[in-house]
Each structure stands twice: as structure tokens, then as C-alpha cells.
Amino acid sequence: MKKTLGHPVETGELNGYTIALTAEDYRQTTSFWWHAWSPSGSYAGQSNDEDLLALLIARHRFDHA
Fold it and tell me: How many angstroms separate the CA atoms of 38 and 17, rounded?
């Protein structure tokens, strides 16, 4: 079994933010994390729940308006 090291397995865009999905091995279970960067390159944060990603981006936009 090949271990993942948190390298992006997929990238994309959501509401103008760059998104990277990473897969990490944690206690022999794969965990997925979504990371977001603003158009200016500011790190907006990460979530292990894809449904919360849009809220994370909205909060980052509000905090940096």
C-alpha cells in the first residue's frame, strides 16, 4: 500500500479561490482535506468536510474585505 504525504490529488477553483484536495494517511485510514487560497494568494484555510468549504471561503472573503 502506497502512503500519501498530503500532496494534492486534485486541484480546481471555487468562487474564484484555488482549491487543492489532499489525501493523507492517518492511523491506516485515508483522510481528505480541502485547502483554499484567495485570488491574491492568501491562505483561506482547510476543511475535512467539503460541504464547509464554501462557508470557509465566505468567511475569508468577509474577514479580508
Answer: 5
Task: Tell me the pTM.
Answer: 0.79
Q: Pairing mode, if any, of strands 29-37 and 43-47?
A: antiparallel
pLDDT tens per residue, range 1-58 = 455 566 778 999 988 999 999 988 878 888 889 999 999 999 999 998 888 999 999 9
Angstrom CA distances, 21 to 32, 38, 64, 65, stand at 7, 15, 23, 25
Provide the β-strand partners of residue 47: 34
Output b/e per residue, 4-19; b: 16+ Cβ within 10 A: eeeeeeeeeeeeebeb
